[in-house]
Amino acid sequence: MVEQLALWERDAFLAINAAHTPYWDAFMYLISSRWPWIAVAFGLVIFLFVKKPLRESILLVLMIALLITVADQLSSGLIKPYFERLRPSYHPLTADLVQSVYGYKAWGYGFISGHATNFMALAMFTALAFRNRWYTVVVFVLALTTAYSRIYLGVHFITDVVPGACVGLLLGYLVYLLYRWLRVKLYNVHPSESQSRLCASTIGYLTSFLCVFILFLFAFAGELMGVMKGQAGW
After folding, report:
1. Hey, which residues does 101 pair with through a beta bridge?
2. Transmembrane region positions (predicted)?
3. Which residue, 85, 150, 183, 228, could crosslink 189 as a Cys pair with Cβ 3.0–4.6 Å?
4. 71-115 per-position pLDDT tens digit
5. Tell me: the pLDDT tens digits for 43-52?
6. SS3 at position 124
């Protein structure tokens, strides 16, 4: 039964990994890369300090930093070394079948996906903290697309990504509970008072910023596709 499940997962993984086009190769490579998200992180910090009490901003940034640290260390520092599951590019069942993008194969072990853990944790925490419908939709679209990109790029199995996403959602919820408790204890804020009442305009700006970031990825993916085609002599 276990072997049959492994074969089913392999087939599902390969079906996703095989659905390549030059444009989506570029897009998935970009959304899975580090540098675009560093820019988003700077933007997030800036927007969190706009038109809202300094003490609220500091606590929120500290909680986000704690969340990312815990999520990253749990996934990459504890779970991956414990299970030692090979990534698809190195796994005997898939090593010869994986289609990589631009030669990218990642390194280290695969279970669980750090990208899925971190992004879903951040999406859950901020969605609960801000309580804004449009922000929630946008941030979860970004998180889910990033998680999906790890399968598309061939660096994670589906069963690396889904558990990682679940762990991230749980961590995001738990850190949010801690954050809400600290707001009550430190600032005497009523538990039902969300950040959306303190910084409604800021959340709107932040949502717009994330939408612009998505548009940037779509536009720059076309440029990257052209560059890679030129280098490959297509």
Report:
1. 104
2. 27-50, 57-79, 106-130, 137-155, 161-182, 203-221
3. 183
4. 999 999 999 999 999 999 998 888 888 988 888 888 889 999 999
5. 888 877 776 6
6. helix
